[in-house]
Amino acid sequence: MSSSASSLHDKLNQLRQRFIDQLPARLQLTVGLWQQSQASAEAQARLGPELHRFFHSLKGTGRSLGFERIALLAEQGEAALDGQAPAGQVVEQVFVHLAEEQQRLQSLPEQQRALAAMTSVEFSPKPVQTRSKRQRLIYLCDDEPDQVSQLLHHLRCFGHEVVHFEDTDTFFNAVITRRPDAIIMDVQFPQGNTAGTETLASLNKLTGEPLPSIVLSAHGDFHSRLSAVRAGCNGYFTKPVKPLDLMLAVDELTTPSDEEPLRILIVDDEPEVAAYHALLLEQAGMAVQQVNHPADALTALERFSPDLLLVDVYMPVCSGEELANIIRQQPEHVGLPIIYLSSETDSQKQLSAMTAGVEAFITKPVIPDELVSAVTLRAERLRLLRSLMTRDSMTGLYNHSTTTELISKALAQAHRDNTEHAMAMIDIDHFKAVNDTHGHLAGDQVIITLARLLKTRLRMSDIIGRYGGEEFVVLLKGVSDERACELIDALRHDFAQVDFHAGGTRFRCTFSAGISRFPNHPSTESLRLSADQALYRAKHQGRNQVVTSTEQDDDGLPTDCP
Amino acid sequence: MRILVVDDDPLAGEMTGALLEFQGHDVLLANDAMEATHELDSHDDIALIVSDMYMPLINGIELLHMLREQGVMLPFILLTGDTPDDALRQTPGLSACLQKDAALDTSLERAVAQALGA
Description:
Chain B: It holds the Pfam family Response_reg. The structure holds two protein chains of two kinds. Chain A is an alpha/beta fold.
């Protein structure tokens, strides 16, 4: 931390300390005022604003200094005073809780307070965000250190940011100040047999939004499990836990369902109407493009790749019906959902439009909810169908043909933009032996794990595909082959540390990889061939390494990744 | 730049002051509208006022009106512990209306830069 940052830090700690120190006196004064105000209606009217101000400022300053529990209590007090119903009981409860909280803060050992201060008030320049969007912030709360280091290691292997807490209080504070994506929690703590799950339950109640959580416990007894269920936990593992199982469970919990917004193309010759419909759909989280002339629709289809077409029936040049027919002439668009927008008088024309393969009719002026749900239903259906055709069911990665197609598209774009890309061919070492020795289920586990690792650690813009049984292809966009080499080598290193389990045995796996560069190799095929040759070298040089091909690959020696 | 911070809660005022000092400004603290006017009279290099809304006797908005009536046209930023409603936000003469929450350091920095740069 820079010196000015550290002096700010000290200053804030001082302010925090003074806040805690002043609280008893302020509370006492205010409770006195409260009691006076209860004596008569006149007193209540007179002292009301001051009482309100007390709660209001406690809320504001408390929140700014990171005392979230106090801020929430003060908020309750403020709301009670604002409300119509007699506030008496609520306010008195708030005072009691405030006093308890103040005592608790006062008694926290000095270093814990400093730690709480550091995690809740961060004014140092924010660190560069190197996490990819799929990497999660996970809080692990466990006071038994034995398995923790293994878990931390595996979770970090996948690139997640993991913070470890040994007691429920610092954990509680941390969740409130910086919300994690998932929690792994032990049930038992020194203060109680179900203290862990109780903390979770109270956190969920306080924040209103339940957090994805997994319980880790040395005990699988009914009582512990019940308390986990009551706390709304999503999983229960008994120790000793296989880190990979926990890892995959966390992954399931935190994978966002569908990151890509639905893409809708609107064709309407009235720009204001098109814009209005676009707005409605964008508010529902979709990406929308508008085209006012039907002739522009074909190019837009090509470039934008929409999931659904919203077409006006009455347009100059050609009707919506005719446009639908033109689009359906192209085999790749036969499955594209098309929804017609028409005004009421066109109801007779609806039948003929249906034969052109139109999915639905919506009459103008539209009812916003109806438009959104009709579009969502059909666009999502197409997405699902498409993914069944384009993705490998076991890993969720793109299948061979889709991967090639996507890479070709990306390279076509790159020719126009003059960008560089790198391709990596990844092949698991001795995979046949894994299947033979440990069984096919174990082999599957290895494949799924590598797929998850790739998905988590690489960016959403990178194209990741499963090329064959144990072969993966990745197109890393916008990076040099050296950088790609570093990235893939880091992945190689981390993958090699993962423990797999089969029956009673534990084993590890490695992979080899070959890297090639665009535009040195300007076509998908040459890029792939070159990466493949580099992979071959990697295998023959002993496996568990990454080799980059150079332009002289055909006649010279390739470079190894240092 | 020299900035005047007005807040009846001394801790809150010091906290706002600390944030502004970290951002490189010089800070003067006042506990109420009277002190605020006094400070403005004694220092002619004050460039901006950051004031709490909820104060006894004369609140933030009342202070703003008072100053404008006196011909003090300095940029004025209002701080409140609640989510500021639109009516408050759109009060003429206000540079910005910010909520005192965990993100105050960034929102204040931005608002100050905007108010001083405008």
